[in-house]
Specification:
The chain is of the alpha+beta class. The chain is 16% helix and 20% strand. The termini are far apart.
Length: 254
């Protein structure tokens, strides 16, 4: 008799072991690829954390971005944001929270925190800015809900701070992202995130900010586009108002 090529080897068991090895390698690979952004990890004070996790950082990879946006290499071990933060730790105990030391609405701490994103607009699949004012979009209309344009804007303390002059739309998603508020007394225009306002039948109601805060909302540089960094700062200021606009908001709400 001619002996079998594999003898007494159990091919089914070998296949199972090979699948286990492949699946373990796939998990390690995906986890390392997931570590390209946000790593290496840092401590609260900005120093490099001693525990980076069970898997090593992936090898650096360079990505060529579309529409002439250049290249980016990650991970690169370069801090994207080295600005000093106006905050102090409330206790020496590890894990104690930090509190802002300057203007909490603009400190970049807690609910008012923002990331150092690129100071360029986010682009759609055709290389055009995604978020644009409806005044420059002839194909867009308000087909449902309330059209906020022209309505007065009431702050949390009941004052009329301006009127809605336009609505900024995420063009690919066909969603309103911001209301453009023309401040009273020639204070200029500011953007208000649509999620933080309530559009009533005869006015727009704001809970996050009081009248005194509207003039300090970060201003955008261009009239027809908003950059990713500007979006970060605008959203951070509005969200910071939910906690820091008044001292009473620092306590538990019932």
């Amino acid at each position: 008799m001619i002996p079998a090529i594999v003898g007494n080897l159990d091919l089914a068991l070998v296949s199972l072991y090979l699948f286990w090895l492949f699946f373990a390698g796939l998990i390690i690979y995906l986890q390392r690829e997931n570590m390209r952004e946000g790593y290496p990890l840092e401590n609260d004070d900005g120093t490099r954390a001693g525990n980076q996790g069970p898997f090593p950082l992936p090898f650096s990879k360079t990505f060529r971005r579309p529409f002439g946006a250049g290249e980016v290499t990650v991970p690169n071990d370069v801090k994207d944001d080295d600005r000093p933060l106006a905050m102090e730790q409330t206790s020496q105990a590890a894990g104690s929270p930090f509190e802002p030391t300057g203007d909490p609405m603009a400190s970049g701490v807690g609910p008012a925190s923002w990331a150092m994103r690129e100071d360029v607009p986010e682009l759609d699949g055709h290389g055009h800015p995604k978020i644009r004012p409806m005044a420059g979009l002839a194909d867009f209309i308000v087909s449902s809900g309330r059209d906020a344009r022209g309505l007065p804007v009431h702050s949390h303390d009941g004052q009329v701070v301006g009127r809605v002059s336009d609505m900024w739309v995420d063009v690919p998603e066909a969603l309103v992202r911001y209301l453009e508020v023309d401040l009273a007394d020639g204070g200029g225009k500011r953007l208000a995130p649509i999620q933080l306002v309530k559009i009533k039948s005869d006015h727009v109601r704001v809970h996050a900010l009081y009248a005194e805060h509207f003039a300090s909302i970060p201003v955008i540089a261009a009239a027809d586009k908003v950059t990713k960094l500007e979006e970060e700062k605008i959203s951070a200021y509005w969200c910071g108002g939910k906690l820091y606009a008044h001292e009473n908001r620092l306590e538990a709400q019932f």
